[in-house]
Design goal:
By secondary structure, the chain is mostly helical. It has one domain (2-126). It is built from five helices and no strands. Helix 4 runs antiparallel to helix 5.
Amino acid sequence: MTLLARIVLILNSTLIGLIGLAYLYDPNLLLANYGLSADSPGMDNMLRSTYGGLFLAMAGVFALGAVSASRLSDGLALLALFMGGLALGRLASLAMAGAPDPSINTLLAYEAVAAAIALFLSRRIRST
């Protein structure tokens, strides 16, 4: 179970880290995949800080959880909260603003599954 937990953390650390780097470099790089763009310096700033800086910081926390036995369960719990928060935001947007581009549903599915897996693993590791 510990090996699987480390793999989950490393995988998500890598993905979130790459997303963070891409948004720091050019927010429009990934937004274009969804028919979106950062059209103002303010939006550019918001995207670079949240999807760029915050995602990189979280990737570091997930990586720390993967390499530190004493932080493994904490890293998984934080991954569950992080991915669950992203999924919750997407569901709120769906309810309040309507359906986005269908490709965004893939992100919602990944975030929900990752949150559930991380929560399951965190609980299993805490109970042993």
